[in-house]
């Protein structure tokens, strides 16, 4: 039976994005494309067990709010996620995911593109929508990203 699990490379062989791995086969797919690390942005209940992920990958976790949370994403959370991503990237390619790869993982990948590749938020959004069409960050996340000065 074919898997419908799919990931997209934001930066080829550096940064990948996709949905939450929920089966052993999903982890194998991620491993087989050369990913060394995983950054989880959703709650623990939305993924296969953290112990299975940690057996195969370097793994970091920060639970970021999406549209279902009363709490709103803040700059400290966004910057902490970027710091975790930067640490993981020292070990090679990283897979960034939330539940569906629509809100949280795209905003973190966009923030990475803004910070490291000097894109504007609009350029990062346009690019990410081209390579990962289900990208749909919240307006409040886009405003937050626009408000951060990465040159400090």
Fraction of residues in helices?
40-55%
Mean pLDDT: 94
The major β-sheet equals: 5 strands, mixed
End-to-end gap: 50 Å
Strand content: 5-15%
Supply the CATH class: Alpha Beta
The CATH homologous superfamily is termed: Protein tyrosine phosphatase superfamily
Rounded Rg? 14 Å
* Low-confidence parts: none
Number of domains: 1
Overall outline? globular
List strands and helices in order, with pairings:
Blueprint: E1 8-11, E2 15-18, H1 24-32, E3 37-40, H2 50-56, E4 58-61, H3 75-89, E5 94-97, H4 104-117, H5 121-131, H6 139-147
Parallel strand pairs: 2-5, 3-4, 3-5
Antiparallel strand pairs: 1-2
Helix pairs in contact: 4-5
Task: Describe what you observe in this structure.
The chain is built from 6 helices and 5 strands; from the N terminus they run ββαβαβαβααα. With 152 residues, the chain is α/β, with parallel strands linked by helices. It has one domain (8-147): Protein tyrosine phosphatase superfamily (Protein-Tyrosine Phosphatase, Chain A), CATH 3.90.190. The protein has a 5-stranded mixed beta sheet, sandwiched between helices. The relative contact order is 0.18. The mean pLDDT is 94.
């Amino acid at each position: 039976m074919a898997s419908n699990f799919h990931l997209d490379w934001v930066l080829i062989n550096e940064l990948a994005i996709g949905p939450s791995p929920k089966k052993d086969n999903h982890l194998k797919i991620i491993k087989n494309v050369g990913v060394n690390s995983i950054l989880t942005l959703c709650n623990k209940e939305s993924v296969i067990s953290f112990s299975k992920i940690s057996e195969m990958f370097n793994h970091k976790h920060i639970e970021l709010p999406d549209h279902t949370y009363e709490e709103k994403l803040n700059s400290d959370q966004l910057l902490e996620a970027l710091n975790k991503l930067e640490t993981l990237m020292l070990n090679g390619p990283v897979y960034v995911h939330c539940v569906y790869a629509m809100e949280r993982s795209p905003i973190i990948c966009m923030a990475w593109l803004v910070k490291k590749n000097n894109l504007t938020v609009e350029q990062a959004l346009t690019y990410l929508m081209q390579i990962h069409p289900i990208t749909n960050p919240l307006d409040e996340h886009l405003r937050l990203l626009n408000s951060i000065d990465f040159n400090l």
